[in-house]
Amino acid sequence: MKRPMSVRFLAADEAWREGKCNRFLGFLSLGYVRARMVVANVLAARPPVSCACVTNFSIHMSCRIPIVLISSSRVGTLPVMSRAGLDTPKIVPVQPPAKRSTQDFIFGKVIGEGSFSTVYLTKDVHSAKEYAIKVCDKRHIIREKKTEYIKRERDILNMISSAGVPFFVKLYCTFQDNDSLYFVLSYAKNGELLPYINKVGAFDIECTRFYAGEILQALEHLQRLNIIHRDLKPENILLDEKMHILITDFGSGKIVKNDDQSEDSEDETRRRRNSFVGTAQYVSPELLTDKVAHYASDLWALGCIIYQMISGLPPFRARHEYAIFQKILKLEYEFPEEFDSQAQDLVQKLLVLNCNERLGANDKDGYPSIKSHPMFAGLDFARLHLTTPPAISPYLPSSDVSLDYKVPDHLEPGLDSQLSRLLGLEPESGSPKSRRSQAVEILSNKELRASKLESQAAESRWHSLVEGRLILKQGLVNKRKGLFARKRMLLLTEGPHLYYVDPVSMTLKGEIPWSDEITPEPKNFKIFFVHTVSPNRTYYLEDPEGYALDWCKAIEEVKAFCSGKKV
């Protein structure tokens, strides 16, 4: 019995999907083939369609690639009839499947986690391109009533991706299964901005100018798209493979309708609940009082980020959120010494309590008033995304070593000798013997070690703080976090370990992680860095007595002696 046409169409499609082209062409009539090929070619020529639409977690899937007739994970080539001659097959590549699923990606390591989502590094099985896929737990979203956050993030990412502007993560497609929602996003290979600030302590002014310029340019794009981020902070600023910024996390964002920044229903609900959107250290005062965000709310966050890039810490800091909020509402913050004067002027003009009085708040198209600030002099904003970013370097405040340093009379002429002394290869004549590292001598002699440890236990106030280990070198240093410094007793012990203690409260504050890759670096007679690999961080230390070279030499000696073994 002859099967209905619809059944034959389904059978034909199944044969096509399975790649059984010869059988498929054999049992279909020429008329069917021609009609089907014409449809395929017409559909294949259609432009890409927008990303998935999320409504009450019913996602109507379509991917940002041209839709073709075949919906399959198979990759290869199949015959498609040409328009000019339908009898002559033309071999064209099969596009990746229009409807995506987890089977289209290889899931790698976790690169980010949120309250209801996990972000994975993935690879597209069709193109081998890397993506970041944000996996959102449906049940958690529904239970915590976060549906609007997901929809808002989807809408904003769609707007940004469609605009094609730089400095943002792009949304390529979305899909879902029974348990999760999936956002396929561009992968920021170099991670968040915050760890770079933490690693070097504080950016130099060239780095700060460049990255502040890129953030400002991104805020211009958002203003023109009628979007307010509302949670701008270093953790939400990612860096791509070329070290340009990619702003992410628009779950707290707001789409401004008809340029009306007034309170909407969500703002009203938040005001009733006395809650705020954003992160405590970067939240603007109007979000704490009126619960309403303006474009200038993001400018407040920009001021906080510029302050943090230069100083190493956000301007408003306290032990708990309430105390932070009080400082924000009172505009209670201060600039450390050595803060760049032009950057300070810009920060002061951005951190203004009245949002309408902030620099740039009244600009209508972009932020020309901010771009013309002296801090950005010479910066080509239009070409920032094409410019090679400056290397991220720490800011070194001027040292007062020159005020009390005199060139010794016994030194020989020439630069080479001075460089050798600076690198610790040649000791200064007349240096006290006590300043030379004796660590290796002590560690090599068991009797000497035992004697030293016995004396230390009886006499040293630091003994109990280093877990009974023998102290090989000690001294007061200023441990810097950007431009902020705290006095600490630095203790190099067997093990080896590098402890730092608060000398006033006599409490152990921490330990510099030791490994075979630990590297001391002298910057001058007072300042030295200690670079660690795990975590990837640089500790900025200053010896007020000018013995930085001795510290570096002692660390190197202990590292060489203990490499591969523990004492």
TrEMBL record:
GO terms for biological process: cellular response to oxygen-containing compound; intracellular signal transduction; regulation of developmental growth. It is found in: Cytoplasm. ATP binds at K134. Gene3D superfamilies: Phosphorylase Kinase, domain 1, Pleckstrin-homology domain (PH domain)/Phosphotyrosine-binding domain (PTB), Transferase(Phosphotransferase) domain 1. One of its GO terms (molecular function) is ATP binding. Residues 105-376 form the Protein kinase domain. GO terms for cellular component: cytoplasm. It comes from the Eukaryota. Keywords: ATP-binding, Cytoplasm, Developmental protein, Kinase, Nucleotide-binding, Serine/threonine-protein kinase, Transferase. The lineage of its organism: Eukaryota, Metazoa, Ecdysozoa, Arthropoda, Hexapoda. Pfam families: PH_3, Pkinase. Its main location: cytoplasm. It catalyses: L-threonyl-[protein] + ATP = O-phospho-L-threonyl-[protein] + ADP + H(+); L-seryl-[protein] + ATP = O-phospho-L-seryl-[protein] + ADP + H(+). InterPro entries: Kinase-like_dom_sf, PDK1-typ_PH, PDPK1, PH-like_dom_sf, Prot_kinase_dom, Protein_kinase_ATP_BS, Ser/Thr_kinase_AS, Ser_Thr_kinase_AGC. Its EC number is 2.7.11.1. This is 3-phosphoinositide-dependent protein kinase 1. Belongs to the protein kinase superfamily. AGC Ser/Thr protein kinase family. PDPK1 subfamily.
